[in-house]
Amino acid sequence: MSATPAPQAEPRGRNRRGQGERLREEIVDSACRLLDELADDQALSLRAVARDIGIAATSVYLHFADRDALVLAALEHCHHGLVAAIDVVEQAAAGNPVAQLRERTLVLGRWAHDHPGLYKVMHESTLNRRAAMAFKEEFGRLSRAAVQRCMDAGLAPADDAAVVALDLRAAVHGAVSIRVNQPDLPWPPLEDQVDRFLVKLVGVKAP
User: Fold this and answer.
1) Whole-angstrom Cα distance, residue 9 to residue 11?
2) pLDDT 10s digits, 117-146
3) In 3-state terms, what secondary structure has residue 99?
4) Cα angle 130-62-51, degrees, rounded to a multiple of 5
């Protein structure tokens, strides 16, 4: 079923000098909203984004050469928001590496639950094969560091933190993806699954 088109916004005046960056941010925000509704980057059009915020399509092309460029900018914007949210929960659990790892993992899972369309575009779209998403490498680096903190504190067996973090990410993405694609099945709470992953894959003690 196709998404219901967003109502056309009232035409807006030209941005005053120096507000070009603000317009770019509005375009990216609109793309994020529409991608979450569509769950398909190929269904997004620059004209639809222009209609959504009440500007001429040519104004979008001044900032983004094509749809892929806009989608990549939208996904990178989401990524930065996720990293900021992770920073908040890790700071709240400072001094407890296992709690930090658990909470950062749950942030990713909850974001996917709240934004299934964006999750599908970020991780399951063909754009992943057509374009490099270097910003996603930060997830791997931060996950590895979180696992390493647990090992350094003696709260998890010493091991290759990069391998363990990759196993954990793969398990969590699997749990999240199947929820996104089959939401009506009787899934156990994500928190319970994450706790089992931490015990079985990282080796921390059961909570």
Assistant:
1) 6
2) 999 999 999 998 888 888 888 889 999 999
3) helix
4) 90
